[in-house]
Amino acid sequence: MDPIYKALIVCTNHTDYPTKAQKTGLWLSEATHFYDELADRNLPYDIASPNGGPVPIDEKSMDRRDNTNEKWYNNPTFRSKLEHSLRFDEVNPTDYQILYLAGGHGTMWDFPENSILQTIVRQIYENGGLIAAVCHGVSGLLNVKLSDGSPLLDNRQVTGFSNMEERLVRLDDQVPFLLEDALRQKNTLYSKSLIPFLPYIEVDERLVTGQNPLSARKVGRKVIEEMYEK
Q1: Choosing a second label site near 150 at 20 to 30 A (CA), which of 6, 122, 125, 144?
Q2: Domain 7-228 falls in which CATH fold?
């Protein structure tokens, strides 16, 4: 019998850019493609966000040609969890063995300095759980410190949305900081794919990070492999 693990998918509540009219939020495929891999194992899961309640979806990510988005966004259970997400302070970290930080530009505002999120990450990690993040969701790991005071990311192999990708989507002048620069400043072993927007992940023991939206499925696969096939 396989052990039953429970996953917590963490999403943003932030929607506004400083000067652009378009709205940001969760990049939908970063949640759906990741969960699609977990669903094959029937893993129980919850969705949480800093303020709880409805998770906003980046309007540019609502691509109807994406069968996985369509499948899960129209799935009553998944949709209900997205629209009634747990608030961070309602989360009991001991319930989860997998933590996944989904991206979308919104995370750059409400993940990095969130002390409750940092506590959730630390507790799940120190309880032997696996920490995963993709794209801008990796920003939620920047300031996580372990109980001994050492940074979670210190000297760890990680990836995340690159400066080049940020420039190519023309949002480098909107975000509060560039994620690649911030990761490099944190003494990580940052790496990225040679060609922007190709699936790329880094694995460092119980830490799995993906570079961009197309990496979400690969992160999900790796999480399942690490939890079940080792």
Answers
A1: 6
A2: Rossmann fold (3.40.50)
Determine contact, residues 38/72, Cβ cutoff 8 Å: no
pLDDT at 139: 98
Under 8 Å between Cβ of 139 and 107: yes
Q: Of 35, 85, 36, nearest to 56 (Cα)?
A: 85
Token pair belonging to 162: 């690159």
By annotation, the residues acting in catalysis are: 135-136, 166
The pTM score is 0.97
SS3 126: helix
pLDDT given at position 63: 74
| Predicted local distance difference test score (pLDDT) of residue 90 | 97
C-alpha 23/C-alpha 40 separation (Å) is: 32
Cβ-based neighbours of 67, under 8 Å, separated by 6 or more: none
